[in-house]
What we know:
It is a single chain. The protein is an all-alpha fold. The protein has a domain at about 35-65. The protein contains 2 helices and no strands. It has helices spanning about 15-35, 35-65.
Amino acid sequence: MEHRHPKRVEDYTTANLILIFVNLLWILGVIWAHFGLAAVILTGWALNQGITRLEQYRASREIQWPSDG
């Protein structure tokens, strides 16, 4: 049985961030067209709150179970 080392993979972080930005842009545009600017502001606020809570949750999990890496 051959033991092959895994090859290094490319970093697609920038491409993924651009794709997230484009998708968020058109989704917010559709929300704006259908419901108005107030709905876009509330959606942005809700996304910000969700990201903040996710960050706090991940930080608390890191304190409880530190990773080896």
